[in-house]
Structure to design on (218 residues):
């Protein structure tokens, strides 16, 4: 399957997929529940503010591409929606968890993916994550690609390709001013600030996951 989805279609598809795994008792989702899932502030990057018309439009495109469908239950008059990714791609659980996180939050490192995908599938170690990523990259056409490692980082990031091929700047396109290039202290500060921001985001995610876990025992 070779298709290109926009960011709203990706968000709708990923939200359906996530909720099937994390809240199966409330799946399939009504339109209102799906809008809320798309717009939630945790585990989303970027955070969106979609309305019902935008989500309906995305659902029509996904339905046309056999990636979602509406379902009706005899006991309810409310139309609900479900994804059809398993029929389209036949993912195993590891691939599904990793790919869903990439759809929800964009480019991420294997370490980030292992932590964030825990609520959908437990990975014993990073090698399991990397193996799942490799299988997704080996699909025809590929569903994932690895991005060049950023300066000062230890891990490469991976990104999904459902929105098409990613345009990356080449060395010839990047203009570095000599005065800027000779200031390693500033570069180090920027890297540290980025790391602190990411750590704060991960702590917030963990708090959210713990709150959901604790509610199960109240």
């Amino acid at each position: 399957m070779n298709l290109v989805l926009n960011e709203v279609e990706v968000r709708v598809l990923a939200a359906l997929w996530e909720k099937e795994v994390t809240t199966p008792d409330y799946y399939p989702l009504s339109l209102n529940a799906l809008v809320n899932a798309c717009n939630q502030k945790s585990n989303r990057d970027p955070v969106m503010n979609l309305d019902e018309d935008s989500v309906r439009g995305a659902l029509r495109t996904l339905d046309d591409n056999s990636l979602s469908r509406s379902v009706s239950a005899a006991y309810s008059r409310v139309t609900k929606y479900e994804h059809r990714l398993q029929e389209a791609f036949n993912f195993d659980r590891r691939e599904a968890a990793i790919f869903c996180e990439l759809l929800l939050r964009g480019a991420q490192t294997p370490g980030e993916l292992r932590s964030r995908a825990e609520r959908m599938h437990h990975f014993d170690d990073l090698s399991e994550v990397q193996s799942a990523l490799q299988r997704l990259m080996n699909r025809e056409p590929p569903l994932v690609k690895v991005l060049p490692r950023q300066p000062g980082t230890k891990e490469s990031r991976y990104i999904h390709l459902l929105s098409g091929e990613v345009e990356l700047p080449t060395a010839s396109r990047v203009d570095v001013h000599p005065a800027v290039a000779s200031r390693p202290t500033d570069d180090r500060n920027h890297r540290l600030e980025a790391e602190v921001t990411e750590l704060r985001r991960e702590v917030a995610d963990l708090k959210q996951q713990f709150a959901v876990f604790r509610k199960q025992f109240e």
In short: Residues 184-215 form the longest helix (32 residues). The CA atoms of residues 45 and 105 lie 4 Å apart. The first strand starts at residue 29 and ends at 30.
